[in-house]
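README: folding subset

This subset contains proteins for which both the sequence and a predicted structure token string are available. Records are stored as plain text. Below is the entry for Adenosine deaminase (354 residues), shown exactly as it appears on disk.
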Amino acid sequence: MAVSLELCRAVPKIALHDHLDGGLRPATIVELAAEVGHVLPETDPEALGRWFFAAADSGSLVRYLETFAHTIAVMQTADQLRRVAREFVEDQAADGVIYAEARWAPEQHLAGGLSLTEAVAAVRDGLAEGVAAAAASGRTIMARQIVTSMRHASPTTEIAELAVAFRNDSVCGFDIAGAEDGFPPSRFVEAFDYLKRHNFEFTIHAGEAFGLPSIWEAVQLCGASRLGHGVRLIEDVAADGSLGELASYVRNRRIALELCPSSNLQTGICATIAEHPFGRLAELDFRVTVSCDNRLMSATTLSREYHLLSEAFGYSMDDLRRFSRNAAKSAFLPWDQRLGLIRRVEDEFSALAG
Ligand SMILES: O=c1[nH]cnc2c1ncn2[C@H]1C[C@H](O)[C@@H](CO)O1
Ligand SMILES: [Zn+2]
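--- output ---
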């Protein structure tokens, strides 16, 4: 029997792949849009939530990404960014997430006159406020930010430098996101070289809207230790379970796959969770982790993703424990903190297993 949604809420979870600009509360968007005069497709929060889901549910990543115009429009001042970051953490904590990495692209948040540094500092402050608010309501959560470069923009090292500048100040990693087809990871090879020279962590969106060549570049030309989605690595797995060289390398190296099942249904990777490559990749012992990608656009939560996977593949508490443990192992945290996270996952799962 599937692990219930209620129990999935209670288990300790780790959100490695969750976009800050893809997780706003609809009510917050309505309120901020009214303040700044941004015209929304719907002004009732519930209707707006439904609109995001429907508009993102097109089968195309490019159309999915168009919906972000309405969230980015209300995240252009320090106050707005701080509020969105605070609510991000509060919502994650309320869903039983114990560690979250919020990713977003500061370059998309400068229209109100903020500098890149001011924007990152505002998110840092909001994350800290959210952690404090969660603690006040009895929930312990840690939160960090992943700073993202948009891959269709001119390649630059500027955002990588920004990430490194904040390495001891809430930024735990770097990423590239946006349309994948036509914008291979190698375009940003200079940024990744900069990060490697500075011993800094990064993940790369790859293997979502494009296949194995994108994953190969992310891993071998750029050096990613985690893959955003990476789901199309399944194309390097034969029907009998034998692995091609790339899939074999990714599995050997324990490169984490930040899998986001519901998001993939919307961008056309498969029609049902049961058809999602997650099941096969987990069975073959890849380092599978579970994330939401964009809670707003997919109308989901991490506990819901756990529950859907458990329903589709019959996962037990032990399986879910493995997915949380995998995510803890691949968190962009220093080793002592990562160990603390792994222990917390084990202890809390053991307590729930009774
Ligand atoms: O799943 C995704 N693939 C590629 N890009 C994405 C995905 N989800 C969100 N993004 C983009 C849209 C956001 O504005 C940007 C930064 O969070 O990242
Ligand atoms: Zn993403």
